[in-house]
Write a structure and sequence with these properties.
Bound molecules: 1-deoxymannojirimycin
Strand order of the largest sheet: 3-4-18-17-16
Distance between the termini: 91 Å
CATH topology of the largest domain: Glycosyltransferase
Strand content: 5-15%
Number of strands: 22
Number of helices: 19
Helix content: 40-55%
Low-confidence stretches: 1-22, 55-98, 112-120
Length: about 575
Amino acid sequence: MVVYSDHVALNLSTSDNIYDKKRTKSLKRKWHHLSKLQKNCIYILTALICITLFYILSNTPDATVFNSEVEEHQIKPHIPIEIKFNEKNFETDNDHERVLDDPQDAELLNNANKEISKNKRASEFSGPTTPRQVAVIKAFKHAWRGYKQYAWGHDHLRPISKSHHDWFGLGLTIVDSIDTIYIMGLDEEYLEARDWIEKHLQFDINRDVNLFEVTIRVLGGLLSIYHLTFDKMYLDKSVDLGDRLMACFQSGSGIPFSDVNLFTRKAHSPKWSPDSSTSEVTTLQLEFRDLSRATGDPKYEMAVSKVSELIHKLEKTDGLVPIFINPNTGQFRFSSTITLGARGDSYYEYLLKQWLQTGKTIDYLKEDYVTAISGVQERLVMKTVPNGFVFIGELLNGGKDFKPKMDHLTCYLPGTLVLGVHNGLPESHKKLAEDLSTTCYQTYARHPTFLAPEITYFNIQGESSNDFYVKINDAHNLLRPEFVESLWYMYQFSGNSTYQDWGWNIFQGFENFTKVSSGYTSIGNVRSATDVRPKDMMESFFLAETLKYFYLLFSDDPKLIDLDKYVVNSEAHILPIHNS
Ligand code: DMJ
């Protein structure tokens, strides 16, 4: 190295080894002769080189630019595109053994037939019976521990900042997940959750809440645990809540407003629109009807049945509905999108499940469901290029334009379809369920995190060699349950253990990329294993649904929840089937 008065030059010529020592000494001497400024320049230069190298290395696996806002996936599938059932994609047997390495886990499994605590119906939910279920219980306990430590009594845990988030101020995580706790046979957690609900869950709070969210998560959660335990405390709380929510139905048409203040009992539309979402007003019926049946008071069921009847009479596009409806006029906003994703999804789910809940006695529900699925098959089902993956797209502008986009939310549909087939509906629904399951699985398996994004776009015109792509803003994963839910139904009705194996692979994705020291976090980017961008949120549905469905999926008892006796609401809460 040669030092000049105003700069440093590096002499890179090699020298013989025998001169190495001398050269090191001379280098050291020269370094000491450098000015502070010169030394700082060298430090900064070195740091810049390191940062550039790090940046280049950590970004190499990422996608190339597809257009200005879209990145196309270049990542190779983790499994062959041609999926054969019963083919094991992972070393699942070894994973089983690993799960049981911990003596406490083995004990959990051995204790399966332990004494059931007070309030439990003996022997029904006596703990895990498979190693995979043990792994799910460990995950649940980890999430619960974080919630208890940093967010107890609040709606959600923020596991990165170790703090909480309040949406409605109703201790959502506790109420939403108490039936999961019960089904998993977790005595200690059950008692602490029950205790909180009894002493602290109050509805006379001066706060606006969303009718749909509170119905599926809180009313559904309370009714589910009431039916599992027959503990009247839960029913009393349900009645208090149900009475407050009833204000929403005081609209011009009977179609409910989306929001209500639980204290003043004043209902209104959302701030951003005069309309309610179609899926929201049609995803209340299981819960309100159940409340009527459990209490003997018909008013709840009458209000929600009226909504279904009104919507039954409205004009539709081959049985498919726009996603907005006005509570005062009772009419659809006809130009709004038709989708089986956000704001449309559970309209279709509750047509079928209401029909089942009422002992298959209300014909128009079944007819509307079958017509809608035909509409899906004719108008929304499409195949990708080059590999022919089946997906469900959307219709825009009053049904005129097709958009090759599918929300992860739509991945609930395979489960609903096979539930229908199990109950005598057309066999063609089963093929659609299988095909769509394969596509949904691919949206997980094709990412290095083995997790699906919120939204996927599909290639239908051969504009690329990839079947689908994910936009930057859609690459998040909120720990959603829909596909795990479908896997459970698919497994229930086929007995095909491939669905369990798929679920296990996805479970590993959650374990590897969303688990943090204080719980599990939503992530912003499923496309990179090195840059998942944690979002610091653990929604209540992760415990209420995602982990519950994993636990049920990995059970070796197909009747752990008997689907001939129960319907499962949109938030994975379990309600009895009646015969009328
Ligand atoms: C849940 O609250 C319910 O499953 C709802 O029906 C849809 N969204 C979330 C989970 O993704």
